[in-house]
Amino acid sequence: MPALALGFVAVAAVLHAGWNVLLKTSGDPLRTAVRLQAIGTLVLGPIALIAWAAGGFFAIDPRGVAIAIGSGVLETAYFVFLSAGYRRGDLSLVYPIARGSAPLLAVLVGVGLLGERLGANGTLGVVCLLVGILAVARPWRAFQEAGREHRGAIGFALATGVTIAAYSAVDRVGVRIIAPWLYGAILAVAATTMLSLTVRIGRRRGWLAPAPQPSEGGGPSSLMRDGVAGVISLFAYLLILVAYSMAPLAAVAPLRESAIVLAAAWGSIRLGEASGRREGVIRIAAAALVVFGAVLLATGK
Q1: How many domains does the chain fold into?
Q2: For the whole model, what pTM was predicted?
Q3: Cα 153 to chain center, whole Å?
């Protein structure tokens, strides 16, 4: 895996954690999802259009456009499931399960369906990353300890993981047909349009949870927060698309989660979030295993 792709994925992972915190802490995660998608599209769309015009309005492969639209459908489902999970459960419950289940599925898709192959170092790196992610997140504990009110959140978190794995595989194909910046712009327009319509129609007909009272998530400050989340989300996703164009899905997808897990483990230990010495040791060992896996993936052939 190229070192540049490794750096892009690490930065994207940290940014991804940041906008998820903003999404969870907003009064209305689903509305915030629509806003951040719309803001990201407003930023990227004109830039992509200018770049396309500067290139002489070159022909765009219709296969890539179709794939981007398909990914937009999957991203709409992703935001609906993720927002539903955040409305029902804690960030520390939903996020690890959603992000932790996706890499395993993505690796299976990359190797099993897309025909990608990893060398010995890369394969061992994937194993180390996945074991480290599971050791930090420990989703089995969430299943054991979650009360009845959280079981719905777990189901939506798992559904989110499925959509992550699905759109990761689709995007990996799309950026090999169309340049990542142009693919990202088409995807952003498609996802924003479909998510906005889904939320508007779904809430009107009662398929989705109704919007909370304005006092729960309105006002200029919320719009500014959503704007920040939108820019962060856009930049993070563009970095991932570029990484997909440089490295295999089976290497990028697990590594995409590693910086998030490392940050969570560091915060838990340094900020005293670990419940005891034993848990602290487990988290340190798991973080070290993730780092080792990342190094192996970076050097794997």
Answers
A1: 1
A2: 0.80
A3: 17
